[in-house]
Specification:
Layout: H1 14-28, H2 34-41, H3 45-58, E1 61-66, E2 76-80, E3 86-92, E4 96-102, E5 108-115, H4 122-138, E6 145-152, E7 156-157, E8 162-163, H5 177-185, E9 189-193, H6 194-204, E10 213-218, E11 222-228, E12 231-233, H7 263-267, H8 269-281, H9 287-293, H10 300-308, H11 312-336, E13 340-344, H12 352-365, H13 368-371, E14 375-378, H14 385-401, H15 403-406, H16 414-417
Helix pairs in contact: 1-3, 2-3, 6-14, 8-11, 10-11, 11-12
Length: about 425
């Protein structure tokens, strides 16, 4: 891509503003011919031609096929050159690593997944994750990496890219995840809580709605991602939505964070596994008990699957957990008033059994006005959800937040995105 050094953005002129807008309109498909751009922007034909020529010169746009004629000469469409760069998403979970590589339209080109215990620490985990990324990039066409998004299963200070006292990530507190990736790949990096990536993926399905949404993940742990008017709501320090560590009245279980009675310690996947073992030791029978007796390690997914298949112990565990999660979600509904709640995660894969209990508690406890138009549904259960959400976050940061800072470079750089360019 050409480096057009004559475009400077210290003082954003009308020319620059319209140029950025045209590139984004074509990228999003809002206007893809010169006449359409003129009608949407109100710019004259000559000005549109000049701006488009500049965008083509810089390598952002190119001419494509002809559009259908409306009576005169058929106009030539424009296309955004999504192939010019790559976006990398690295979604770290408590027990897995999922990485994906996409083009600038978010089309997934390659991905990989492996089991991994994040408690092995940051150095070993990031070595494993970057090795997976390297393999995917080596199998590609050599296009440069434009952005990287990393999801972590714990609280993250979004401004610094560092985890903050994550309960299930020993050794990660304050670790500079962003710099580790930026130095290796020479590309801007954004680090966020893993549930925010899932919330961003759901937002992408409703991009035109300006949606108010809660994504509640009930897996090994419990967390929520909040979207307000189409924007991820992280709070002042990135802790918004950390519902897993809300206190459950009367609960005495010790949480992995060290506190007593957290929702996660009562209804999280690891808590249900703990309670399943205790019940089996107390004489409970059924599929779960038989699995444990056979020497298998019990997982939250096992409990969800067994509940779907009618195992009485699994059903009782899932329903009890759902009731507690429903209470917490109801509190969020009263405070946040979303239009959509999406329930995902390993335990939520129990389906309608889990969802029905949450719906019951939310509608019973929440205010009538807050639930009047509320939709509560399970996630799409797409294994690519973290990658799709990470791409949506990357595109937002590249083209909606930081574009004026790096546009003149022809591609995003670490210095330009962070506003450090001369």
């Amino acid at each position: 891509m050409a480096n057009v050094s004559t475009l400077r953005f210290g003082a954003q002129t009308d020319e620059v503003t319209s140029l950025l807008r045209i590139v984004n309109m074509v990228r999003l498909g809002e206007a893809v011919t010169r006449p359409e751009i003129g009608r949407v922007t109100g710019l004259g034909r000559g000005v549109v031609a000049q701006r488009v020529d500049r965008a083509v010169e810089m390598g952002f746009l190119e001419d494509a096929e002809y559009a259908p004629s409306s009576g005169g000469r058929a106009p030539r469409t424009l296309r955004f050159r999504a192939e010019q760069g790559r976006i990398v998403v690295c979604a770290l979970g408590g027990l897995h690593v999922h990485v994906g590589v996409t083009d600038l339209d978010g089309e997934i080109l390659n991905e990989a997944h492996r089991a991994w215990d994040i408690a092995r620490g940051p150095e070993e985990t990031l070595d494993a994750a970057t090795a997976m990324v390297d393999d995917l990039l080596a199998a590609g066409d050599g296009s440069p990496v434009w952005a990287i998004v990393v999801g972590l299963p714990g609280p993250v200070d979004f401004d610094t890219g560092r985890p903050v006292a994550p309960p299930i990530m020993p050794g990660w507190n304050g670790y500079d995840v962003r710099t580790a990736f930026e130095q290796r790949y020479d590309a801007p990096v954004w680090v966020d809580n893993d549930v925010n990536l899932l919330a961003a993926g759901e937002r992408a399905r409703r991009r035109d709605e300006g949606v108010d949404l809660i994504y509640c993940k009930v897996g090994t742990g419990i967390g929520a991602g909040l979207v307000s008017r189409g924007r991820l709501h992280r709070g002042a320090n990135g802790a918004a939505g950390d519902m897993g560590h809300v206190r459950v009245p009367g609960a005495t279980q010790i949480c992995r964070c060290g506190k007593t009675g957290c929702l996660e310690a009562v209804a999280g996947g690891w808590a249900l596994v703990r309670d399943a073992h205790a019940a089996i030791e107390g004489g409970a029978t059924g599929a779960l008990a038989e699995s444990v007796a056979s020497g298998n390690d019990l997982t939250p997914e096992d409990i969800a699957r067994s509940a779907e298949r009618g195992d009485p112990l699994a059903i009782s565990l899932v329903r009890a957990g759902a009731r507690q999660v429903g209470e917490a979600v109801a509190a969020l509904v009263n405070m946040f008033n979303p239009s959509v709640i999406v329930i995902g995660g390993a335990i939520a894969s129990a389906g309608e059994l889990f969802l029905a209990e949450i719906r019951h508690r939310v509608y019973e406890v929440s205010l009538p006005l807050a639930t009047r138009d509320l939709v509560i549904k399970t996630s799409e259960n797409d294994t690519r959800e973290p990658v799709r959400g990470g791409v949506d976050l990357a595109l937002e940061q590249l083209f909606e937040v930081s574009l004026p800072r790096w546009f003149s470079e022809g591609r995003p750089t670490v210095a330009a995105v962070h506003g450090l360019s001369a």
